């Protein structure tokens, strides 16, 4: 006999119970020819100037649809901590950076292998908040994990990660407030700001490290940063010494790219760079970077003008 709460999940998600269990077991039925295959595939992307390798574990279309429904219809009803500034509607990297603007001293800490360190037991504890039967709670858990951990690439993973970290955020946030320290966490990046004496005198790094270790996480010591006001202080990619703004070299680099594209054309610009990028793909990426900079500098009319001009270039390139 099917569990009543399992039937409820099926109704809420609009997916038959049999298919939910098929997805939760990470397999699909055998095809007429060949064997079964995983509901996930791995996608490798390269980020930043150093082309750092990042592996995403991405669900197939059907599982992704179900996970989006779990996120929208279930998980989003559970509140996350106010100290978590990533993966929340109405918050951005700029909002996170503004919290630490104009501070005397900043400490930045990073969690190693963040998503891979969140196992199915931690996800099960999140799902228990719905007060469903153990069978239904287990079903929801296994619809959102892959090989026992939270997959980086599933639409449910970021919000679940915030829910897993809620107790940590509240505990560390209160601890910091008692010591006049400002705290925020953007995914696996934690930032602490305030006076030099308050930050260094609190032995903050040890406190955070021990608290994370008790949860199964470890600090990436290589990414620990101490920055005084006489140094460049960056938080989630923005310089925050005086105001939250993009690094000067980033603005200059983008300005040069736009200039060359408008003066010589995209194809000639790519040729001079020795780039093998397709023109349309390159323009889309350039527009994405312009849009990001506009989010950080909405008052910059020149940026807005460049965005319009590059958009026209894209339209002309698309007609070719």
UniProtKB/TrEMBL annotation:
Keywords: Antiviral defense, Magnesium, Metal-binding, Nucleotidyltransferase, RNA-directed DNA polymerase, Transferase. Residues 1-240 form the Reverse transcriptase domain. Its EC number is 2.7.7.49. The keyword Thylakoid does not apply. It catalyses: DNA(n) + a 2'-deoxyribonucleoside 5'-triphosphate = DNA(n+1) + diphosphate. One of its GO terms (biological process) is defense response to virus. This is RNA-directed DNA polymerase. It comes from Ruminococcus flavefaciens.
């Amino acid at each position: 006999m099917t569990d009543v709460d399992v039937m409820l999940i099926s109704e809420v998600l609009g997916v038959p119970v049999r298919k939910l269990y098929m997805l939760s077991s990470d397999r699909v039925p055998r095809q007429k020819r060949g064997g079964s295959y995983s509901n996930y595939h791995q996608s490798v992307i390269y980020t930043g100037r150093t082309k750092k390798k990042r592996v995403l574990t991405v669900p197939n279309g059907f599982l992704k649809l179900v996970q989006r429904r779990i996120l929208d219809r279930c998980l989003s009803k559970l509140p996350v901590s106010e100290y978590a500034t990533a993966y929340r509607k109405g918050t951005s990297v700029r909002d996170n950076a503004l919290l630490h603007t104009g501070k005397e001293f900043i400490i930045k800490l990073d969690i190693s292998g963040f998503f891979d360190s969140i196992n199915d037991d931690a996800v099960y504890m999140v799902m228990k908040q719905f007060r469903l039967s153990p069978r239904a709670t287990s079903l929801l858990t296994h619809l959102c994990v892959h090989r026992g951990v939270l997959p980086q690439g599933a639409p449910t993973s970021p919000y679940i990660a915030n829910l897993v970290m809620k107790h940590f955020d509240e505990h560390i946030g209160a601890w910091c407030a008692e010591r006049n320290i400002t705290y925020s966490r953007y995914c696996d990046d934690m930032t602490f700001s305030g006076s030099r004496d308050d930050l260094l005198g609190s032995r903050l790094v040890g406190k955070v490290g021990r608290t994370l270790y008790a949860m199964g996480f470890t600090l990436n010591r290589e990414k620990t940063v101490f920055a005084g006001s006489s140094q460049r202080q960056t938080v989630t990619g923005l310089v925050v010494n005086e105001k939250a703004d993009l690094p000067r070299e980033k603005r200059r680099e983008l300005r040069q790219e736009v200039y060359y594209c408008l003066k010589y054309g995209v194809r000639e610009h790519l040729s001079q760079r020795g780039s093998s990028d397709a023109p349309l793909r390159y323009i889309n990426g350039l527009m994405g970077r312009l849009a990001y900079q506009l989010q950080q500098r909405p008052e910059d009319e020149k940026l807005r003008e460049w965005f319009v001009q590059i958009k026209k270039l894209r339209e002309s390139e698309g007609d070719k």
